Amino acid sequence: MIGAIAGDIIGSVYEADNIKSKDFLLFSPDAVFTDDTVLTVAVADCVLNNKAYAGTLQEYGRKYPNAGYGGTFISWIFRPDPQPYNSWGNGSAMRVSPIGFAYNSLDEVLAQAKRSAEVTHNHPEGIKGAQATASAIFLAREGNSKQEIKTYLSRTFGYDLDRKLDEIRPMYTFDVSCQGSVPEAIISFLESTDYEDAIRNAVSLGGDSDTIACIAGGIAQAFYQSVPDSIVAEAKARLDADLLRVVEQFERKYR
């Protein structure tokens, strides 16, 4: 899942200052992990230690309260009896990558993605975004071609993946919905030539740059089977000890 985390960190500086080009400094000195990374690690902790999704997301959210969550989620973190709030936001998709890497059948991946999403994002689009992202990662790591992945996602989730980045980029604006960012992240992967290119594609669209790059980065890592060592080192250097410990435990178990 380091591919998703690196995408978040790289994109973090461009969320509020969009860039419509692939020509940018990969790791800005100001690049930091955001809520995408925190909650991705929380889901990894759930997978590793069979923890409940709702309680663990709250635990991590309270530990990192200034990571950049949406307003409704930040309120949810501190509720004594947290209930889902029918969200279709892309938060369900940006945190789901560990599930795509960990489980050994597509049915398991779809079921766990739904479980991880619906504690907050129980709107059909919120669940769909998580399942599409996790299943793309699973299919990629199982050796499916880009065309096979595209066909499955289009038929199963109804996303229009025939658009090109050059068509999307000029008019694309900030969109935190699953339906308005998950397909764009998938297309960023589909048009890529390697992991780094997928991240550059995602950031170049503008919009919710860190989340689009996070989603695309997880899929790209699974498909290309690795993340360049230099990118891994830069990303891990920006994590604190507690987050890094879970990331490395997950890598050891699911490599």
From TrEMBL:
<keyword id="KW-0479">Metal-binding</keyword>
<keyword id="KW-0460">Magnesium</keyword>
<feature type="binding site">
    <location>
        <position position="34"/>
    </location>
    <ligand>
        <name>Mg(2+)</name>
    </ligand>
</feature>
<dbReference type="InterPro" id="IPR050792">
    <property type="entry name" value="ADP-ribosylglycohydrolase"/>
</dbReference>
<feature type="binding site">
    <location>
        <position position="208"/>
    </location>
    <ligand>
        <name>Mg(2+)</name>
    </ligand>
</feature>
<dbReference type="GO" id="GO:0046872">
    <property type="term" value="F:metal ion binding"/>
</dbReference>
<dbReference type="InterPro" id="IPR036705">
    <property type="entry name" value="Ribosyl_crysJ1_sf"/>
</dbReference>
<protein>
    <submittedName>
        <fullName>ADP-ribosylglycohydrolase family protein</fullName>
    </submittedName>
</protein>
<feature type="binding site">
    <location>
        <position position="211"/>
    </location>
    <ligand>
        <name>Mg(2+)</name>
    </ligand>
</feature>
<dbReference type="Pfam" id="PF03747">
    <property type="entry name" value="ADP_ribosyl_GH"/>
</dbReference>
<dbReference type="InterPro" id="IPR005502">
    <property type="entry name" value="Ribosyl_crysJ1"/>
</dbReference>
<feature type="binding site">
    <location>
        <position position="35"/>
    </location>
    <ligand>
        <name>Mg(2+)</name>
    </ligand>
</feature>
<feature type="binding site">
    <location>
        <position position="210"/>
    </location>
    <ligand>
        <name>Mg(2+)</name>
    </ligand>
</feature>
<dbReference type="GO" id="GO:0016787">
    <property type="term" value="F:hydrolase activity"/>
</dbReference>
<feature type="binding site">
    <location>
        <position position="36"/>
    </location>
    <ligand>
        <name>Mg(2+)</name>
    </ligand>
</feature>
<keyword id="KW-0378">Hydrolase</keyword>
